[in-house]
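Meet my pick.
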Amino acid sequence: MRKKKWRWWGLGLGLAILVLVIFNLRHSPTWRNFNWTGLWDSVTSARPQWLLAAVAVVYTTYLIRAVRWKYFMSQIKKASLKKLYAAQILGFSSIYLIGRPGEFVRPAYIAKKEDVPITSMLAVWLMERIFDAVFLVLLFSLALSLIPAAAMTSRGTRVLSDLHHGGEVMLGISALLVVLMVAYRLRTEQIAGWVLRGLSFLSMKRRNHVERFLKSFAEGLGVIRDWPSFLASVLLTALLWSTNATIFWIVFHGLRGELAAMPWLASAMVMFCAALGLAVQLPGIGGGYQVAIILVLTEVFAIEADVAAGAAILIWLVMIVPALALAVVILIREGLSIRRLEAIAEEEERAAALAQKEK
């Protein structure tokens, strides 16, 4: 009941932010005379061969994610690439359909299918997110330094400057988390000892619970000690986000006009802003993702509002439809549903808590 309450609070906050952004957009000079016919023409005139190419690349990104998870898990278990690929598809489909609560589906599904502790998979999930954040900020900084200022409006340059400061904060937090994770993995027993001594006021049973959690979490960070797997994970992260930026570039080229002339680094910049927009995510709708794409295209690169809106819609469809289509096939084959995936996630969480209590 408490989880559902927090979920509704999160959805309400996300919706409020999205409504506020849309309200401000509608009262700006750029959007006051929005050309709906231009939006329709922009979407319908897209070249289908480019969109199909983008769909193929989308499926490739899930394969890259699955291979990276395989390396992340190398010190825990030799995982099945097929199961890991299915986990990526089902996990992201859950996010698209039920919002941020769907994030827990991937680690829970993998924990169940591979019979490994859920705490280890949560550690892998955290490490994945840190890798992604660090590379995204680095890619954005590279794009910001290499794209000619003439390619951006004066207002857009100021907007990007503010985003760059936000990116630096994000990079700093990620770097701090990396340091803490490395220190914990290399000094697990020592740090666990400090934590347990600090929790000496707890009962022995609860301290044992915390101790097992810390050890299980450390197992999920095993890739940090395995240099070949660690370097492979870094390279795969670079490949993943370069491929994600390529999806944006392909869709832009499929739309012809001004967007077809967008360089790859500019597409990477739009992707970074879209990733920031994911903080506001409404189940089945998206929201912040599309709004961020529209804002950066109109405010930074002076693209017409109707064309920018068409690009945002097509990118969202290219990202979401392939995952959902394949997810349906996987769900039918396994006799599951999205609700059942949520239930699996909750079952894994309860089973982990119960196992800790019994021990």
